[in-house]
Amino acid sequence: MKKYIPLLFALVLSVALSAQYKPWTSAKQPLKEIKALKKQIKKPEFRKVDYLITDFGAVGDGKTKNTEAFKKAIEKCNAEGGGRVVVPNGVFLTGAIYLKSNVNLHLSDGSTILFSQDSNDYPIVFTRWEGMECMNYSSLIYAYEEENIAVTGKGTLDGNSDNDNWWFWCGATKYGYNESRPGRQNPARAKLHEYMAQRKPARERVFGDGWYLRPNFVQPYKSKNFYMADVLVKNSPMWNLNPVLCENVLIERVKVISHGPNNDGFDPEACKNVWIKDSYFDTGDDCIAIKSGRDEDGRDIGRPAENHIIENCEMKDGHGGVVIGSEIAGGAKNIYAIGNVMDSKNLDRALRIKTSSSRGGVIENVFFYNTKVGAYKEAAVRFNMHYEKPGNHIPTMRNIWVENLTVDKGGKYAVFSDAYESSPVTDFTMINAKMVGVQIPYKVDYMKNVTLKNVTVNGQPLTELKP
Question: Is 446 helix (H, G, I), strand (E, B) or coil?
């Protein structure tokens, strides 16, 4: 009998979760939820004391390595109760920066933090790489289990990456890789997948030198009250802004311009209560990609991406504007994108949900509202359950609401869906959408409970989506 207890518990839990599911019937419902969520997400406050990094020996000549000066300033600021660690005008070269609780790393106008191209300047820390836990190079700015931390100011964070530094590790010739160069991430990526499938303890999955897994740019991990404002972020080795397992994340007026491989703009991963607004993305991969872990790691940790607001942002180049996935095995719920603008011939999709049956997870309650799109390549709205390899964990996509969408210079499809017959995209609503310049109105397979109201494609009413 004991062997059936876990199965019985899983069945009861599944029934209970299904009973809780209620699709929206009006935009008033998610708009009310957004209003309530905004009241929960608060900017951290800091003691009004400044710690100038030049007082700790930093030299802004772009050549002197200032890793120790940053460390000393941040540690003193933290030890004395917090405040601002201020970077003045100049170019300050450094290795990894570790942010401690109650510290606001503030970049003055005209300042640049230029990150070292030497991998030895990035210690091995507990991190996630493409949604998988491991020990690898520290992100350029890192924090672990800290509270009330920030990166602010009108200065620049320069990851200092190019086809000769970091980027070629991806193994693509377009980013500088060739067989005469040491360094390619493919064997390490395969090994990390193997460790994860074996459920090898994460702290025993040790990478670093000789493995070529690029670090992300900004990664607060298991931290609370993370704030970022006004800075320019460019030339990242890999993902740009990647809070992991964090709660209460507020990003505003940030500009990310980074066209390297896997250079996603903003990847909140398994985070709760996230608000990004008034920001700009021009990236080599997804502009914003919401994540919750890959395969076994995502499912075992079981933390969904929950309660995210993406508001008044501008997206240019990128694989997708607002994306959920693909590392989404922990699920995602209550994702609200409102008032965003997208326009680029190099932008593949406006809204994309991508996953696979090796991931699983439930993706529900996605609200895409008041969106203006100029050009895109593939689809305005894209559902994909067959991204990467298949497995035994069929994903769920349900309650997706798109309202007040305009497209001026559309791409191939208005709506494109690739789902499972056993798990169709369910409760998809599109209201007040006007799309022109689209080659093919739609291509869909398995969808259930589709509502279309006042939707036109190239001036013609779109009243149904059928295979």
Answer: coil
437: left (phi over 0), alpha (psi -120 to 50) or beta: left
Tell whether 403 is covered by a domain.
yes
Let me know: does 342 contact 377? Beta carbons within 8 Å. no
Task: Name residue 251's beta-bridge partners.
Answer: 228, 276
Q: In CATH, what number is assigned to the domain containing residue 390?
A: 2.160.20.10
Say which DSSP state 169 is in.
Answer: G
How remote is the C-alpha of 257 from its chain's centroid? 15
* Distance spanning both ends of the chain, measured CA to CA: 45
Secondary structure element (H or E) that encloses residue 298, with its range: helix 295-301
Q: How many domains does the chain have?
A: 1
Q: pLDDT tens-digit profile of 103-112?
A: 999 999 999 9
Q: For the segment 300-324, what is each residue's pLDDT rounded down to a tens digit?
A: 999 999 999 999 999 999 999 999 9
**Cα dist from 84 to 72, 143, 234, 461, whole Å:** 13, 16, 23, 56
Q: What tokens does 300 get?
A: 């075992």
The answer to whether the Cα torsion of 342, 270, 357, 10 is positive or negative is: negative
Partners of 127 in beta bridges:
134
